Prior knowledge:
The chain is of the alpha/beta class. It has helices at about 30-35, 40-45, 65-75, 125-135, 155-165, 195-200; strands at about 5-10, 15-20, 80-85, 95-100, 115, 140-150, 165-170, 185-190, 210.
Amino acid sequence: MQRDRGNKRKTIDGSQENCQAPTTVYDYPAAREVLDSNDLLKRTLANEPPNEKGIRGVPKNEWTTPPEIVEASLEVLGVIDIDPCAESKDCPNIPARAHYTIWDNGMSVHWEGRVFLNPPYGNSLARWIAYLRDEYRLGYVREAIVLVPARTDSRWFHYMGSNFIWCGVKGRLRFSEIDGPAPFPSAIFYIGKNRKRFVEIFSRFGPVYDRI
Length: 212
């Protein structure tokens, strides 16, 4: 079944606007500039099969944040300053003040303020968590909400669970990339001082755990 890729997204001021999701890598302006100047990269991406989103050249391990998680994150953070793993700048589903896509490399800048992080779920996931840890220790990140697969057998998950409050999502989230529930469980971590608010809002998704 072909899915209608048109959708609505929430803007910074809380209003709704129609937004057409990109279907090829050329729908990303930054990507067009890179590809037009790099013939080898252009040929490589053209030969790649589309991922779950049907977007050529975009890693298969990216999963668009469900709208209910976006809404809940805004209820806790109030405003999102940075989305370092945005799927698009033209049509982002996270209403952040700044978006960094795979073409920008979100780990090349400081994450100042309130961050929403839904990183790629592949081999680079641990590096994103490590970068978040460092930015928080250095005082750049004030608050953060992190949506990740619940990989309880990984070191990065043990680090997050040992240091920050988190919600174990009951059941499986539904991502726009597939019809039906996700093929993996999810966890949502919170970094910051507004822990009581996180418990109040995210307990609707599942039990909330805190370090002893």
